[in-house]
Amino acid sequence: MNETHSYDVTWRTTNGVPTHVSEFVSADSEYIKTVSFGFPNLKEIRCTLNWTDDKATVLNRCGLDTLTLQITSPDGTTVQQSATSARRTKQGSVEIIVPLTTERLVPLTLRSRELSEAASQLKTTYDDYTWTNRTFTVRVSVHVGEIRLLKRMADRGNDFDLAITPVFTAPSILEANNFQENTASTNETSEPLKAQIKAGPLEGYSPLTVHFYGNPENDARIVSYNWTFGPTSQPIVPQATFREPRVSVLILFLLLFFKNPLLSFAGISLYLTHLTKTESKYESTERDPTMVFGSTGNYWATLTVTDAQGRTASDTVWITVLQYIYPDHYHTT
Prior knowledge:
- The termini are far apart.
- Strands 1, 2, 4, 7, 8, 10 and 11 form a seven-stranded antiparallel beta sheet that branches. The chain has a five-stranded mixed beta sheet with strand order 13-22-21-15-19, with no helix packed on it. The protein has a four-stranded antiparallel beta sheet with strand order 3-9-5-6, with no helix packed on it.
- It is flat, with a radius of gyration of 27 Å.
- It is mainly β.
- The protein is built from four helices and 22 strands.
């Protein structure tokens, strides 16, 4: 008989890691930023712009700036909104939500021989890559509110804080009761197995070291852990680990007998190479691995847990590695 398993799939709306921007927008030009997101099932993009008017007059007359936030989708659709600084607090805020997918994913049941096959079937049939890695253009402009010439010349623009948050639909796969072809299912019930990832930090600058914890609730039924990381096209390595210390000490001791500086330098280089190992690694069976993400981009980490009865469950988190941008000191206020 061909043994298969039943997997229940539910969908949850998840906020991705927001991209934060703190910049200065000049009255003579607009600030432009392009963003893209590397995961499927994008539901909407939320952009929130906040600022404080730095040149408002004491009596709040004619000195309050107006900032405009504009988002252009890859299909050319443009949404924009403007707001003027409040007279009392001199603060302003604009929020734009760009809807991308209106279709609502419903719970379903997949039948496959193993979890990886069910996950592959789910990606092929239900994952929507319409907006994956597509470019969204965000523009910020300012209109200086001061009408008096000297005051207007002194007000060159405004600082602002921008948060860009992707919202996507993520699946949760949970193995249901096992069944065999032409065999009646049993009436046994038990608490479902759950995979849960706790990780941090999920956003930071390259290279980013992330600590993963595979069983925060200490479920004693879990007997094995299987981590997969991606994409494999980007460098992902485990945290540097040290080799056998006695061998390293012996190599260092031998280096002391080298009188030639060139031989000493070459020997020390070999010693440091031996001391640490940083091979690329995209899988782990540890419960709490630590990984280093080397390049900018979006990464994912999936945990699959298995109990003594062979039941499995999985969970996925996304990691965003940012590229450090040196500030423009000319425009710093």
